[in-house]
Amino acid sequence: MDFDPWVRSVKHVSKEKGKEGTLVEVGLKPVCLESWWTSSHYLIAYMRRSSLEAYEASLAKAYAKAQWSTRELNGLKWRVAQVPSSQMEPRKPNGGGEAYQAWLTELGDTGYVMSFEMGASKESLDYPKAHEAIEAVLQHLLNTFTIERLHP
Fold it and tell me: What top-level branch of life does the organism fall under (predicted)?
């Protein structure tokens, strides 16, 4: 199995009508994604072949309103983006949540970065129990995430 589409940018020449001959991104796929339409939330996990700094820079546009910090959790150093509730975007027509929280950590000295991200919109706050529960799931993922070297 070719794992490249999940961990790096992979572009192909489109054969889609109206886009023939243009380069389209088919890589950078999430390792795991779950979304909730009604409450406008999502949880997503990515793994990237990248430096932490380059990956953080790639999130700059999506997390333009975020406050970035460095945190220690479960023995790991994380770069964390948090959009303040007052800066959350309204839900776009036929859309879902926007960037709300991102937690990024290096996977040891492998050259890979793991991120867990939570999306939400202003409308998500209309569902306080769902919002709290999804934040709790994110925290559970982060608190139980460990990195262990595989033995040959």
Answer: Bacteria
Contact 117, 99 (CB under 8 A): yes
β-pair type (23-25, 32-36): unpaired
Smallest CA-to-CA distance from 117 within 16, 43, 28 is with 43
| List of residues 6+ apart from 129 with CB closer than 8 A | none
The residue to which tokens 């406008």 are assigned: 40
Which residue has 């509730």 as its token pair? 85
Q: Per-residue pLDDT tens, the chain, 152 aa: give them.
A: 677 767 777 778 888 888 888 888 676 778 899 999 999 999 999 999 999 999 999 999 999 999 999 999 989 999 999 999 999 988 888 878 899 999 999 999 999 999 999 999 999 999 999 999 999 999 999 999 999 887 77
Q: Is 65 exposed, middle or buried (0-12, 13-18, 19+ CB in 10 A)?
A: middle
CB neighbour list of residue 146: distance below 8 Å, 6 or more residues apart:
74, 75
